[in-house]
TrEMBL record, chain A:
Native organism: Caulobacter vibrioides OR37
Function description: Part of the high-affinity ATP-driven potassium transport (or Kdp) system, which catalyzes the hydrolysis of ATP coupled with the electrogenic transport of potassium into the cytoplasm. This subunit is responsible for energy coupling to the transport system and for the release of the potassium ions to the cytoplasm.
Pfam families assigned: E1-E2_ATPase, Hydrolase
SUPFAM superfamilies per the UniProt record, alphabetical: Calcium ATPase, transduction domain A, Calcium ATPase, transmembrane domain M, HAD-like
EC class (word): translocase
Chemical reaction(s) catalysed: K(+)(out) + ATP + H2O = K(+)(in) + ADP + phosphate + H(+)
Gene that produces this protein: kdpB
Keywords of this entry: ATP-binding, Cell membrane, Ion transport, Magnesium, Membrane, Metal-binding, Nucleotide-binding, Phosphoprotein, Potassium, Potassium transport, Translocase, Transmembrane, Transmembrane helix, Transport
Protein name: Potassium-transporting ATPase ATP-binding subunit
Automatic annotation (TrEMBL), chain B:
Domain of life of the organism encoding this protein: Bacteria
Native species: Caulobacter vibrioides OR37
Function recorded in the entry: Part of the high-affinity ATP-driven potassium transport (or Kdp) system, which catalyzes the hydrolysis of ATP coupled with the electrogenic transport of potassium into the cytoplasm. This subunit binds the extracellular potassium ions and delivers the ions to the membrane domain of KdpB through an intramembrane tunnel.
Sequence similarity: Belongs to the KdpA family.
NCBIfam families linked: kdpA
Molecular function as annotated in GO: P-type potassium transmembrane transporter activity; potassium ion binding
Protein name as annotated: Potassium-transporting ATPase potassium-binding subunit
Pfam families assigned: KdpA
UniProt-listed HAMAP family: KdpA
Membrane-crossing residue ranges in chain numbering: 6-26, 65-85, 134-156, 177-198, 254-274, 286-304, 375-402, 422-442, 494-512, 524-548
Its membrane topology: Multi-pass membrane protein
Entry keywords, A to Z: Cell membrane, Ion transport, Membrane, Potassium, Potassium transport, Transmembrane, Transmembrane helix, Transport
Amino acid sequence: MTSIDTHAGEGRPKSGALAAGLNGPVLARAAKDSFIKLDPRKLTGNPVIFATWIVALLSTISAGAAIVNHQAAGFAIQVALWLWATVLFANLAESVAEGRGKAAADSLRAARVTTKAKLLVDDKTGTWIPTPAHKLGVGEVILVEAGDVVPTDGEIIEGMASVNEAAITGESAPVIRESGGDRSAVTGGTTVVSDWIKVRVTAEAGSTFLDRMIAMVEGADRRKTPNEIALAVLLAGLTLIFLIAVVTLLGLGKFSGVNVDPLVLGALFITLIPTTIGGLLSAVGIAGMDRLLKVNVLATSGRAVEAAGDVDTLLLDKTGTITFGNRMATEVIPAPGVRPDIALKAALMASLADETPEGRSIIELGRNQGLVVESPSGATAIPFSASTRQSGLDAGGRSWRKGAVDAVYRSLSLDPKTIPVEITAAVDRIARSGGTPLAVSEDGALVGVIHLKDVVKPGVKARFADLRRMGLRTVMITGDNPVTAAAIASEAGVDDFLAEATPEDKLRLMRDEQAKGRLVAMCGDGANDAPALAQADVGVAMQTGAQAAREAGNMVDLDSDPTKVIEIVEVGKQMLITRGALTTFSIANDVAKYFAIIPAMFVGALPALAALNVMKLHSPQSAILSAVIFNALIIVALIPLALKGVKYRAIGAGKLLSRNLTLYGLGGLVAPFVGIKLIDLVISALGLA
Amino acid sequence: MNWQGWAEIALTLSLAVAIGWPLGVFMSRVWNGERTFLDPILRPVEAVFYAACGVDPKKSQSWHAYALALLAFNLAGFAITYAVLRLQGVLPLNPQGFPGLSEHLSFNTAISFVTNTNWQSYSGETTMSTLSQMIVLTVQNFVSAATGATVAAALARAFTANRGEGLGNFWADLIRTTLYVLVPLSVVVAIVLVALGVPQTLSAGVVAHTMEGADQKIPLYAVASQEAIKMLGINGGGVFNANSAHPFENPTPLTNLITAVSLNVLGWASFFAFGRSALVKKDIRALVISAFVLLFAGAATIYATETRVPPAQMAAGAETTVNMEGKEVRFGAPATAAWAAATTGASNGSVNGMHSSLMPLGGAMTMFLMHLGEILPGGIGSGIAVMVVMAILAVFVAGLMVGRTPEYLGKKIEAREVKLSILAVLAIPVSTLGFAAIAAVLPEALKALMHTGPHGLSEILYAYTSATANNGSAFAGLSANAPWWDATLGVSMALGRFPPIVAVLAIAGALAAKPKLAPSAGTLPTHGGLFVGLLIGVILILGGLQFFPALALGPIAEHFQALAFVAGH
């Protein structure tokens, strides 16, 4: 089990099947794709880059005309080339982001079944005929035996098998799948390692989990997310505003005696419109999905990733998420007059034959306190039974027992009135704190009480404190009674809890939270979680879970780790922060570009405007070219940031904004002044302009 | 520059905020239909209006219905004003015997007063009959101001709604704002002005015998009442051509202070009223501070440039330390600077000095304050409405950086709101730069200019800037009463007024229908100093930057040319 304090993206040892790296072939394919994307029909969805494409074309024509007319064309050629480079760099960003997904999709495709499925034709005799996987219809029953690859998605109707799901999850340890209950779903592409199962087909060919996964990671049906659409609208609007600001300079310039060169006007337009974020916008979205894939979570839509950043309430199941799920012994309280080590030893002897997690935790407790006991020869294990409600060990005429307090009292025929007050007090205290007391007897005498407790995972409290600073409320859902629930809730530091919860309660709680204007995330694996998963804004289903749950949620965690929802929220936030940071940076860049191009444009007719050339750029042409080059290169420079994402810190919205605003707002204001000046120095030294 | 000057500017600008606050609370009570101390007198009057118009004030309208009512009301206002101006010659109450106005001037003037611009292509004392001044123009002064207020009231309701639909009732908002806020306040200010020497009479004027023995006809009007609503309603259209530099409109430094304060008071009041009605008092403080900082910076720039000796005078060796060009001797540089910033920041448009005579950078600042969208604090209601649009854009651009999709005041900002916000602010560059670029190359238009070169360009830019911003102040120098200018400036005024209003109402409709979200520690804080800085940055970069090239060719070029000229001597 993954420990809860693993931070997103930080040294996850396991690399999922989906985590394809950035390597030579991926980059080569991306470079090729960025040329294919020069097709204007592919750019219509991105108005900023489309506008750049048009201006690049116009400047190419203008450069061509200059050559034909034997005029000086060096400047026009350079501007045209850098404008094309701007479009290419934007395409490259998108291609690189897609490249990783495409590589992952290729490895998933390899998992598709090429061998024939065994279609059962006679259930009694077990006769089957070999059938290609894509010919299987929903409802048909197939036989899958050890060594076979499961041909398609289905539900086990008979049998039990261990299945290697590495092709989907990257986890090579086999899992048990069996008919009935929440573990009955099998996924196409996984391999049965032992035993056999009969599976009823539940998915049409082409719409299996594997197919959908391939489509998702490849981005084949990638749609713009709501926030991405809104941002695209803003960018288109800004493009329009700057178009007006630039085109009107023709008239205003003419009045002032400036004959504005359309090429320069085009250059000004391209440097002013938000090409940086326009070029990187889709890469940021794709990279966000990709980061989810890296932590082995498959989102069914980008919308869900965005919603993950917005989540403000987390509904967490207690067991497995907040606590280890098994009760563990934390102390042995001796009866009056009994030495502590005697009481502990008796508890250990009573648990030697107990293979339950509780029993093993008692042995573990002894080992931690330096006490190891060996099973005496000829010992007889006394198993737990519903009637005695205790278990233990008999050896050499001696006996040790542990069990429910009242059961042990009864078997020892103790009069409740004679029980030492210390023992009664200890039992009460344990029960009140949400723990379970077990009485221990040795040779027919009560020697102490074991404190079994639901142990909260280490680091959980700190994690929840982080979440609170991020503005997330955590609500613990448990079937425990309110006393136990309250004790664990306070120990784990959750904000609220729901005790004795039924699936209906969970759904109701979620609806209440949503009615209060909160966005809710939860994870679940059982079929009875399906309604709540469907209702949740972010519903994370476990890959090992029931088919119904997997279909109801909008994300599937291939590791089946319920703590993953926290990482998902971080990935969502990271994607939104990256988008915001690049937008802010891009817009802040404009100030410097005005100061580069405006004096360069007008200084011929109005020499006094040379005063605005605050960067002291070499010449009007070098100033314009430097701005265009900076504008193109900044896209390439920011591709790594777009792909990797701005790091998310759980420091509260105010501090986060202040930090990022300084970095990307002020940074965006200052960086181009420096960058344009440096480029100007280089190109004037090289004699390019 | 001296400390008295700074103190005068600070007092003028901050007094308006200080008075605007309680007035805003009152205005919010009026919008919300809460009890006010004027109820005993005005409730029955209000009821008469509802009965006469057949309006049920409790019936909340969808944004469509609200916007349609607003547009219909303004269209009717335009038609009536146009008709009266054309027919002025045959209508009564025309003691001066003025003829009807030309088609283009009537068109321009009617739009001008309906849109709360009060651009005047004419000289009031030689054009308008008493009937025109008092009945149509003054009525529009009231109801165009109230129209702006209705937009803010509707927008405020959108933020309190939780999956709601209605934005309130336009007719009720219009009638209540006029009756409870504008009329009583104007009465008070008018009485104060009369007491301080501003004329209020129906007589046509007096004839004075000058020392040369000539007869001088001095026109008189009901100035004080016009003056009060001209300032309070952020209209700006003066009775006299010289506007608030005229001794009948603005006789003393005290009336100057009172009128300068009152031109901003209801703009600020709209901010506070919006904050109270939208239940966002903390957040509104950030908007007030942002607007005030920008406004004060504008006034400071003008004051700084106007107290320097002009380079040309210096070069000529003139022994002077003050620059009084274009300023009223009674008021001086600080009062002119404070007024110039206040009137352009507030979409008022009245002047107590000539903006054409400001130093180039001071003139640039008056234009720039208008380019920002008239939000400092802008017109009644319309100022806060556009300010909220700016805040929405700021939240949208930078809000993502806290890791959540953007929300403002508990409402998610999505594609529709962004699209409408862009539409709301798009009209400003389209109309300002678009018309200016055409006029700059059109011989027909250029005939009206007094100057060539950068200052000539400033004359063109200023006219379209002022019209689009619904400001109405003139740069002077431009002879605007010609078909091209009357027509295009009229269109500019309409473009600057109605598309933003409809866009804002559509935003209100979209926001009202959304669930109201509860804030958490992860929500972008929109009330602290950080947000103020962010908002100012967004206003300057998104709202102002696109005008930089045009300003560079106009006043900025003029500024550097003047410096170069001096350096050359």
